[in-house]
C-alpha cells in the first residue's frame, strides 16, 4: 500500500512576548512598526536575530565578541536585523540610507540598536530570545530536565553557574588598539608587545612601580602603569591614546635616541631599546647599561629581557684562550651576508632563510680576527667563537632588515628576504654549556632552553613610507594589532609575516 502523501508544514508564526503590566510591548515605536507591518517581516527579523545570536554566542569566549560572519574585529560591528549583512559602525549608516534598514545588532553583546532612535533599545521579545540563548544555549522555553531541576547544587556547581549566569560584557581583557598620533606606529607595536608580555604585565598590575610615590616628572614607568591599568582594569575595547607615554618619550633626556623624536617614520627596534633603558632607569639601579660590559640588575627589564654573551678567543699560535662576558638586551641577526651566500648557492630559485640559519651564522660559526695574545706577547691570528652563556626569560630578536650602503650616496636599503621562524624555538645549540655535554645533560638543559613565540613585529612597505604591525598571542589565540584596529589572526598569518622583531618566552615559565 502506497505511503500517504504529506502536506508540507506551514511556517510557524512568531508570537510576540505577552505584555507585562508596566512593561512596554515593544522596544520603541520604530520596532513596533517593523513587527506590526506584516507577519512575514516579523518572522524574517526574528529569524535573522536568532542566527545572529548563534553566531555571537556559539563561539568560545574570545571569539564570541570578535567574530561575526566574515569580519573578525575587536571593536563592535553591527549586524543588520533585516538582511544578512555585517557592517562597521560607519558603513551601517550608509547601509541604512541605501536599504532603509534601520535596526542593527551589536556584535559583542547582541543588543539592538535603532538607527532612528540613535540608541540601543530594549525590546521584550528580542531580549527574551537573547537571555534564553545566553543562559541555556537554546531558544526553546521548555522546562529543565527533572535531574537538572532537582540536582544538588553542591554536586556540580560549575554546571549550575554556567546555566544561570549571563555572559560578561567584555571577555577579551587587555585587547585594545592604540591610536596613531602621527607616524607613531613604530611605538604602538612595541607597546603592544609589552602589554602582552606576562612578566611586564604582572609587574605593573601588582603595583611593581609605585606611581603614587613617584616624584619623577613625565615618568615613562608611571605612564606605562597607567596604560596597563586602562587595558586590564576597564572593560573598554576602543582605541587607546598613549599621550602620557608620548610626552615622557619626547621630554626624555636620553640623547642617544634624539633622532626618534620626530613626526617621521622611525625604527621600532630603536624605540624598543629606548623604552627598555628608560624603564630600567626608573625601576632599577639607575645605572645606564654600558656597551660591552656585563651589567647585572634586579629590575623587571633585566629579569625579563637581559641575557649574557660569551666570546671565546683562541690564539692560533699558542692555542691560549680568553673569555669575555657581556650583557645583551636582544640578539641582532644579520641577513645581508647570509642572503648573498644563499643566493649564490641557489641561483635558480628565490632566496629564503630560516631563523636557525641566522642563529647558526652568529653563534656556531667562528670568525677570524687579530688578537693581542698575553702569552705570546704579540699580535696573532685568532679565532673568535660567540655563544650564549645566559638566556633571558623573554628572548627578543632583531632581524636586521635595514642596512646602510657605503659609497658616494650613503643610503639605507631594506632587505626583503623571507625568514621562516618557528612557533617553538630550541636555543640549546647556541648555549655555551651545550658544547661537550653528554646526551642526558643536553636533554635536561633543552627543557630550560625551549621558547614559544609570543609576539612578531612586521614592517611593511618602503623604509621612509612603510608601516608597522604586530601579532601577539593571547592564550592560544593570535591577534593582529594595526594601530587602533585589532583583528583575530591565524597561525598562518603570523608565520607568513616578514618579521623584523621576534619575541619568544621561555616555556618553563608556563
From TrEMBL:
It holds the Pfam family zf-UBP. The keyword Zinc-finger applies. GO terms for cellular component: cytosol; nucleus. Keywords: Metal-binding, Zinc, Zinc-finger. The keyword Zinc applies. It comes from the Eukaryota. Residues 176-507 form the USP domain. GO terms for biological process: protein deubiquitination. GO terms for molecular function: cysteine-type deubiquitinase activity; zinc ion binding. Gene3D superfamilies: Cysteine proteinases, Zinc/RING finger domain, C3HC4 (zinc finger). Residues 1-21 are annotated as: Disordered. This is USP domain-containing protein. It comes from Coniochaeta pulveracea.
Amino acid at each position: 500500500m502506497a505511503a500517504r502523501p504529506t502536506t508540507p508544514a506551514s511556517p510557524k508564526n512568531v508570537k510576540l512576548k505577552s505584555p507585562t503590566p508596566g512593561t512596554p510591548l515593544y522596544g520603541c515605536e520604530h520596532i513596533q512598526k517593523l513587527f506590526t507591518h506584516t507577519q512575514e517581516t516579523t518572522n524574517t527579523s526574528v529569524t535573522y536575530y536568532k542566527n545572529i545570536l548563534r553566531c555571537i554566542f556559539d563561539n568560545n569566549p574570545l571569539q564570541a565578541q570578535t567574530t561575526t560572519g566574515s569580519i573578525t574585529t575587536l571593536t563592535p560591528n553591527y549586524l543588520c536585523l533585516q538582511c544578512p549583512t555585517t557592517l562597521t559602525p560607519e558603513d551601517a549608516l550608509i547601509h541604512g540610507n541605501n536599504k532603509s534598514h534601520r535596526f542593527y545588532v551589536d556584535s559583542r553583546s547582541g543588543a539592538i540598536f535603532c538607527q532612528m532612535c540613535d540608541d540601543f533599545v530594549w525590546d521584550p521579545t528580542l531580549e527574551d530570545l537573547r537571555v534564553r540563548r545566553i543562559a541555556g544555549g537554546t531558544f526553546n522555553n521548555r522546562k529543565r530536565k527533572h535531574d537538572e531541576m532537582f540536582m544538588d547544587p553542591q554536586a556540580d556547581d560549575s554546571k549550575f553557574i554556567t546555566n544561570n549566569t549571563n555572559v560578561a560584557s567584555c571577555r577579551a581583557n587587555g585587547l585594545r588598539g592604540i591610536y596613531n598620533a602621527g607616524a607613531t606606529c613604530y611605538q604602538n607595536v612595541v607597546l603592544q608587545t609589552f602589554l602582552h608580555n606576562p612578566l611586564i604585565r604582572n609587574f605593573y598590575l601588582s603595583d611593581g612601580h609605585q606611581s603614587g610615590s613617584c616624584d619623577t616628572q613625565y615618568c615613562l614607568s608611571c605612564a606605562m602603569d597607567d596604560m596597563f591599568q586602562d587595558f586590564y582594569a576597564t572593560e573598554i575595547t576602543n582605541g587607546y591614546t598613549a599621550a602620557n607615554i608620548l610626552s615622557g618619550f619626547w621630554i626624555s633626556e636620553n640623547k642617544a635616541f634624539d633622532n626618534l623624536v620626530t613626526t617621521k617614520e622611525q625604527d621600532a627596534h630603536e624605540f624598543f631599546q629606548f623604552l627598555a633603558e628608560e624603564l630600567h632607569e626608573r625601576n632599577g639601579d639607575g645605572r645606564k647599561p654600558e656597551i660591552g660590559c656585563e651589567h647585572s640588575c634586579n629590575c623587571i627589564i633585566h629579569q625579563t629581557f637581559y641575557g649574557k654573551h660569551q666570546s671565546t678567543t683562541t690564539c692560533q699560535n699558542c692555542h691560549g684562550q680568553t673569555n669575555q662576558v657581556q650583557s645583551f638586551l636582544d640578539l641582532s641577526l644579520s641577513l645581508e651576508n647570509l642572503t648573498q651566500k644563499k643566493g649564490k648557492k641557489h641561483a635558480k630559485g628565490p632566496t629564503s632563510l630560516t631563523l636557525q640559519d641566522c642563529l647558526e651564522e652568529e653563534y656556531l660559526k667562528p670568525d677570524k680576527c687579530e688578537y693581542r695574545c698575553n702569552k705570546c706577547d704579540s699580535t696573532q691570528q685568532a679565532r673568535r667563537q660567540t655563544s650564549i652563556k645566559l638566556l633571558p626569560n623573554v628572548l627578543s630578536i632583531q632581524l636586521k632588515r635595514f642596512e646602510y650602503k657605503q659609497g658616494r650616496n650613503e643610503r639605507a636599503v631594506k632587505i626583503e628576504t623571507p625568514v621562516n621562524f618557528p612557533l617553538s624555538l630550541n636555543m640549546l645549540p647556541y648555549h655555551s654549556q651545550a658544547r661537550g655535554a653528554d646526551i642526558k645533560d643536553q636533554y635536561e638543559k633543552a627543557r630550560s632552553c625551549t621558547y614559544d613565540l609570543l609576539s612578531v613585529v612586521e614592517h611593511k612597505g618602503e623604509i621612509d613610507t612603510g608601516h608597522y604591525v604586530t601579532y601577539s598571542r593571547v592564550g592560544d589565540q593570535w591577534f593582529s594589532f594595526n594601530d587602533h584596529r585589532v583583528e583575530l589572526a591565524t597561525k598562518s598569518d603570523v608565520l607568513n609575516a616578514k618579521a623584523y622583531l621576534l619575541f619568544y618566552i621561555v616555556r618553563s615559565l608556563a
